[in-house]
Amino acid sequence: MNSKADSKKNKDAADEEELLKILQELDEATPLHKNKKEDDGMHPLLTLGLVAAFLAHGAILFSLPPVLKQKGAPFLPTNSNNLTVMFNALKKQSYIQKALQQKTPLTFYDLGSGDGRVVFRAAREGIFQKSVGYEINPVLHMFASMRRLVTPKYFKSTSFRMDDLWKVDLSQANVIAVYGLYPIMGRLGKKMEQELKPGSIVVSNVFTIPGWKPVQVSKDNVHLYSIPESIQWKEHKIEKE
To answer: pTM for the whole thing?
Structure first.
């Protein structure tokens, strides 16, 4: 009797197991289940997209206060072509060539370094012992700093500092890059006149420095200035007038 009961119990358990197996296979075959799997696969991409959107919007939002106060410029990334033009022009300058021949350490500053692309390009060129980016926007500063952490090759030769460009001491810079809007360029020019040492070079993308005479201008609107030649021209002009 017990044998028959156990046999029936085992058969019922086997049938139940088979039924559950069939139901599971049907569930996996349904579109809803497939969509769920596809949705699960999209989570990393969605997360990455949200992070990128946050960084982009944050970069714009944090750029607005300095622009409205005429103390800075919005995030204006320098394109690859202009970077090539800029550094090719720098390499041809006698001041740079002499320093390289004599193995004199050179320091590069990027005022308003944004996502760090100009600083990393400067480091890649192998001209400078140190390339420093100054950025007041915390989102962009964080992005550039994180990029530095994952780029060990240039970790020692680059650094990023969150600072107001008007408070930065420029006296230690040999080359300065800037991509500022016209309203701030006059004031920035006066600051550089007071702080930059003879032989220093300034590279400005698109916008000129009022009263300064560039030693070279490319068709891509990359303006290259040399200290003191570019400002002595202004002084001679005032004396003649």
So the answer is: 0.70
